[in-house]
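ok trying this again, last paste got cut off
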Amino acid sequence: MIHLLGVCYSSIFANAGQAVVERNLIRSLIETGDVAMRIIVHGDLELKNRLLDYYSDLAQKGALEFALNDSINGADLFKNIDGLMIHGSDEMLYKEGVVNSLPTVVHLHSLELTPFCRMINILCWRSWNRLHPACFVSPSASTAKRFMFLAGLSRNLDYSLPPVEIIPHGVAKEDFIQGDRASGRLLLGLPDKAALILSLNRITHQKQDHVQLVFAFAKLRETCCCEKDLYLLLAGGSSAADKEYIEFINKFAVQLGIAERVLIKEHFYDSEKKHILAAADVFVSIPTNPQESFGVALLEALAAGLPVVATDWNGYRDVMPLEYQKWLVPTVASHELARNIEWEGVSHNDLTEAGAALLNVLVETINRFVNGGPEIETLKNAGRHHVKAFMWEHTAKKLVALWRRLINSGKGKAPTITGAIPPLKSLVDALATHYLNENSVLRSTNRYVDGSIESVAARLVLGDDFPKIGLAIESCSGNGISLAGLRGKIKVSVPDCDRLVLFMLRYGFVELRVED
């Protein structure tokens, strides 16, 4: 029996991806029969009681116990513990792990730089001094690459990092239980005959550009030949910090004249999620943010039998079935823009702006899936079959095997982990489908007309930078213009020029000529 020490936060009961991962991972590890866990609760007594109730079956068996952070001393906390399981960057826990010489597994989720750097340096120091084995677990190869790049930024050391093991997240058995479409429609107040396009993840800039998705929906309604009324639902949790972002989404929908067709649902019970998925006709997720590492929401949508429109970006490429690969929406990124981001003060907005999903393909793909193209049933069946390989029980067994290797390797020995992670040039390397360079050719789409929804989008999103868009568009006439030529025409820095180009691609003002 392996005895692990971990941490729970109040967010474990949210619908956010990391909360879903933590809830299911704790349960699946214990259900293997090989793991018992002690959990530090960062919160109050109410949270501890909620956790005890939620995991009552496991607690009664003695396989799981909870302790408030301020109600137990260090000696008792680490008594009879074989190793630490850390999600995110919990400094208290990994510092105590150094003192107590415990093997440590750190699960990589969102790579927020400042706490991430501190964690890297502590664990590198630990590995260098051979105090005990440490290992990072990444849900996808793409995230592992991102981790190695950021690790290189965070340190100037002459010793190697602890190894990285790639173990995907999973889906629960309950995710395969189909929800009730009528119940979902009633919950959303949606007409029976309407076609619903669903985005279900946290409503934050960190996840995807919801504003672009609203704009793509507006373009879809202009061009779609679907006989059904179209609705877009943005569903998912949010924080106080996202309030302004959500208000902007609402304002944007009003300005585009589609406010009554764009629904936002921030609060719903976990038990209602399957009915919301059942109410939908197409699932859409279009991240271009390096911190979107895997895509649990994609697996849930595939398990629910929905056709999925997703970007060709980061871990999404690793998650989606082979049959979907040609339908992934191409993305473009800029090495120049990524290299000039100030990492110590980086915001999720900066990261999202480092890439763009191509608007015309996004709209065309949603349109095809909404109208039930001939490939839809094949994709649905492939998705359901594919997801079975991602069950949480498989993830748990791989983690138990990893823990046994770490524990058996003993103090002063590094575990044997296979698979080398290639070096990256920048944070966005190996993420996108295409990359801007001096020879990239841009062509005008002639969509920039004052009074059009493109013009509304530019004025709202760019604000004072609006005139630069006009100048850039005028420069892209005829057969197009190279990015080097465009940079020479508009008097802004190279990163700012690339930011504007990515914006124009995101909203369909220009097209990128891609050579075969």
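PB: full thing came through this time. DSSP finds 22 helices and 18 strands in the chain.
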